[in-house]
Amino acid sequence: MKKILITLLCLVALNTYAQTPKDKQAILDVLESQRQEWNKGNVEAYMQGYAKSDSLLFVGKNGPTYGWQKTLDNYKKGYPDKAAMGLLTFGIKKIDFLNQDVAFVLGSWNVKRAQDELKGYFTLLLKKINGQWKIIVDHSS
């Protein structure tokens, strides 16, 4: 029982250590940069928030997509120009650190266009890769 309690306390301490204000702000900065680039109509720059990897996982209304390039291609197909991209806003609901280098983000998204408005929620897994936070999993609905 004592070993279990000590182990749990260590895990809590490690998780608390992982939740540094600097890391939280770095994640918020990634998302803010994405928002700004989207609103400029620059989907390639928006994609810089994602890990440039074949293992990137994006799950949307059409199911899972693997890979950075395929995700970019899908964005370009679905949002071919600035008018289609509209004006993006995020509502960040929570950021939880699973360990020092992995974080979970829950939020909402809203795209306002001249003819309509799209909105939904997202969950992200971000990983600190070479000192930079990158999205490795995105489930948007």
TrEMBL record:
Keywords: Signal
Signal peptide from the UniProt entry: 1-18
Pfam families, per the entry: DUF4440
Organism of origin: Pedobacter yonginense
Protein name (database record): DUF4440 domain-containing protein
Boundaries of every DUF4440 domain copy: 27-135
SUPFAM superfamilies: NTF2-like
Lineage: superkingdom: Bacteria
